[in-house]
Structures are given as C-alpha cells and as structure tokens.
Write a structure and sequence with these properties.
It contains twelve helices and 25 strands. It folds into three domains: 201 residues, FAD/NAD(P)-binding domain (3-Layer(bba) Sandwich); 144 residues, FAD/NAD(P)-binding domain (3-Layer(bba) Sandwich); 40 residues, no CATH class. Helix 1 packs parallel to helix 3 and helix 1 crosses helix 8. The strands form eight sheets. Strands 5-2-1-9-21 form a five-stranded parallel sheet, with helices on one face. Strands 11-18-12-13-14 form a five-stranded parallel sheet, covered by helices on one side. It has a three-stranded antiparallel sheet with strand order 6-7-8. GO terms for molecular function: NAD(P)H dehydrogenase (quinone) activity. InterPro entries: FAD/NAD-bd_sf (IPR036188), FAD/NAD-binding_dom (IPR023753), NADH-Q_oxidoreductase (IPR051169), Pyridine_nucleo_diS_OxRdtase_N (IPR017584).
C-alpha cells in the first residue's frame, strides 16, 4: 500500500508577531480567494504549535505594566485567530526538530508524552530569552522575556505589593539599561507607586543607558530618570543573585563588578525586594541543541534574506532569528514587518515558486514611554522629540494594530458560490444568494495583483 500522505503539512512553531500576521492573512478574503488564503491550498494541512494561547504584543508591555492597559488589552487570542484562518492549534511546547531521510520533511518533537508533529514546510517564531544570570541565581530574578511568561509574574507581583506591609521601602532592581530596561523601570515605578507609598527603583546598566540611541535621546532620559528619582548605576555587570534570608524583610542580593569607567564606585551587593532581568536578548537553548539548523555564535537561527534557514523548507523570523549578512536589533517592529514575507515565502515553497527577498530598513522610529502618558520619539543619529503627543501617537498605533487582530471580519464574497453550496443544488444556491453578506469591513477585498494591474492602467 502506498504510504505517501494525501496532504502536505505547513507547521508554525510559536505565536510571535510575524506568525500573528500570517495567521490573520491566511483567513482574509479577497477577490482572488473569497474564502481566505487557506482555500487556495487544497491538500495542505495548517498547524500552529504554541505553548501560550494568549500571546502578548510587546509594544503594549510598558503600558500594561504602568496600568494603562489590561491583560486582555495587551494579548491576542491565538485560538480565535486559528479558527479564523483554518489552522489547527496544538497547545504545547516544541523541544526539537528531526529531519526525515529525504532531508526535506521532518517532525517537530513536542515536550511531554505528546505525539510528534510532521511537517513539509516549517516556520519558527518563538522569540528570545534574556541572558542568564552569569554566576547563578536565576531562580531569584524575574526575566522580562519571554514576555508571555512575564505577564503572569507581573500580575502576581502587583498583587503582593498591594496586599503587603506598607512600612519601609519597596526596592525594585532593573538589570539592563537599554531602551527596554529604562522603559520598564519607569513603568514599574508608575504602577507600584499607586500601591506602596515608598517605592524605589534602581537601574543597573553594563554600559551607559540607552547606548543604542542617539545622544539627544540619552540626555532626555537621563533628565527624566533624575526627575523621577530613579537611581542609575552604569558600567556595572551583574555576576550573580543570592537570597538573603537574614535581612528584614528577606532580600534578593545582586552581586556585580564595576568597570573603571563607572562614575561612582558602588559597594556590592545591592539589596532589592524584586529584581527584573531585562538584559540583551539570547537564544532559547533548544534551538541550538535540539535542531539540525545552523545558528549564529550566539545561538540564534541563521537565516538569509528570504527568512530561510540552512534547511530550505524551514524558515524563521522574529527575535529567534538573525540574518548574519544584515543583522537588525531584536525589536518587535522587525518581526511585524517580516510577517508578509514569511507568508509569501511559505506559500511559494509549497507551490514551487521563487522566493521573495526582504531587506529590513536600517533605521526605524522608536517611541519610548516614560511610565505616565508621556513618551520620547527616537530615530537615527539625530531624531529626538518628546511630549504627551508622542504617547498619544504610540497609543493610537498600538491600539489600532491590536484591533486588527481582535476584530476579525466574517466575510463571504456574495459573487462566488462556495463549492459545497453548488454541490447541494438549486435550493441551497438560492438560499445562499438571499443571505446577507457577512462583512466586517476589512480592507483586503482586492488582491494586490489586481490592484497593481488597475493602477498601471490609470497611471
């Protein structure tokens, strides 16, 4: 008996920003595929493997921490997206990839006693983790990434501070002085000050704060941090964290070393009630140890301009991937913009068509919030503007982006009879024609190829 599968498997691992776009676009109707892209792929089974069904949007994390957004506001329901796009959802964690003898198809190995998931074409978008505490003590810190796990921990911290003793001070240490660490410190301070009368926040940075941004932006944040009484310790590398049960209340002690460039020597260790770890991104260990994929020296999956890995039928995007010939910062904006190209290249691989390259822009607008409804806009070597208007702009962008994934259209093109209706005969066809169009007002009714042809005629 012929054991060849009757279908091909397109599998996604992870619910990162690139995959979120792909999931939605597979369900979006257009004039060329009125029932969604998945209908263009007869014989293709679509699968998403994810350990979290509610996936966070990184752009709203600081606002969520500050209390401007609820947990629901800042998270997308992947089960709903999968139902919309025709993907089956497997709620589990991947722990490895094994290739078949043909070198093209393979299996995703699932944690626990779950059955492996076979694939013909695979895409990975699982984000990153912060660098580990160098000398130990990971159990005493709260990592910000993966951000899907941070949200749950943050909810617990807020509850503990709200119900805890309000005497003395509540000390929070933020390890990491990049834009993410500074934004988080200001957001944490803004929220916890509503729960505790004496919250103190300290940033511990390996170099200067905001070192990847221009000098104007750095000076603005130095001023804001000073105005908010956020302590900043620069040129300081954390070495380990220990639990100090002899202090009252018990503390988490941050041990560190300082470079000669440190402006003021600081005695080690520093004592905190909570330590949040927001250092540079590092790769999830299983990507290097349990897959046959080529990785960078840092452990990120190596991809080319097509988001294609060392195995042509496997793609990757977002923080878990790096293009060594054109590296970009580990920022959500690059994952979002990779989405359309990942979708197109997965389809083209399944259809045997040429792949489409993508060269992300080298500069991008960053809008960095300051805890309250105020923000700083940063771009390139000179761009720096600040004000409440910048927060409003960021809020509009983020809320609009999220709305696009929460308010999904229910559409059927009333000019095209679905095959199942045609098969049921004239009565079913008449009933279908009389039914009102189920339209959520999406802007994707005209496919790009059709639009390009019309524009060429009128230009």
């Amino acid at each position: 008996m012929d054991s060849t599968p009757l279908y091909s498997d397109l599998v996604l691992i992870g619910g990162g920003h690139a995959h979120i776009h792909l999931l939605k676009m597979f369900g979006m109707p257009s004039s060329e595929n009125p029932n969604g892209s998945s209908d263009l792929l007869p014989g293709i089974r679509l699968t998403l493997i994810t350990k979290d069904v509610l996936t966070p949007y990184s752009g709203m994390l600081p606002g969520y921490v500050a209390g401007h957004y609820s947990y629901e506001d800042a998270h997308i329901d992947l089960s709903r997206l999968c139902a919309f796009s025709g993907f089956r959802l497997i709620h589990a964690s991947a722990k490895g990839i094994e290739m078949d003898s043909n070198g093209k198809s393979g299996r995703v190995v699932i944690e626990g006693d779950r059955t492996d998931v076979r694939f013909d074409v695979l895409s990975i978008d699982v984000g990153s983790s912060p660098m580990k505490v160098g000398g130990g003590g990971d159990e005493w810190v709260t990592p910000v990434k993966p951000i899907d796990e941070f949200g749950r921990v943050w909810e617990g911290l807020v509850e503990r501070v709200g119900k805890g003793d309000k005497g003395g001070t509540f000390e929070v240490g933020i390890v990491g002085g990049g834009a993410g660490g500074v934004e988080l410190a200001l957001s944490v301070q803004h929220k916890l000050k509503t729960l505790h009368p004496n919250v103190k926040v300290t940033i511990v940075a390996r170099t200067e704060i905001m070192s990847s941004h221009n000098e104007k932006v750095r000076e603005v944040f130095k001023r804001i941090l000073s105005e908010r009484s956020v302590r900043v310790i620069t040129h300081t590398s954390a070495t380990s964290v220990t639990s100090n049960t002899s202090s009252s209340p018990p503390s988490k002690d941050l041990h560190f070393t300082q470079s000669p460039a440190a402006p003021t020597p600081t005695p080690s260790p520093l004592q905190f009630n909570e330590i949040l770890w927001c250092t540079s991104a590092s790769a999830q260990g299983w990507l290097k140890s349990s897959t046959p994929l080529a990785t960078t020296p840092s452990g990120f999956i190596s991809v080319n301009s097509f988001y294609q890995t060392s195995i042509p039928t496997i793609f990757a995007a977002g923080d878990c991937a790096t293009n060594p010939s054109s590296p970009r910062p580990k920022a959500g904006v690059f994952a979002v913009r990779a989405g359309p190209f990942i979708k197109q290249n997965l389809l083209n691989t399944l259809l045997g068509e040429p792949l489409v390259p993508h060269e992300p822009q080298s500069e991008f607008l960053g809008i960095i919030s300051t805890g309250d409804k105020y923000a700083v806009a940063s771009r390139g070597e000179e761009g720096c503007l600040e004000g409440a208007w910048a927060w409003k702009l960021k809020d509009t962008i983020d809320v609009t982006w999220m709305k696009g994934y929460k308010e999904l259209p229910e559409m059927v093109d009333d000019t095209v009879m679905p095959p199942i209706v045609l098969a049921k005969g004239i009565k079913a066809m008449a009933a279908f024609a009389e039914a009102p169009m189920r339209c959520g007002g999406c802007g994707a009714k005209v496919a790009s190829s059709v639009l390009n042809r019309v524009l060429k005629k009128v230009s």
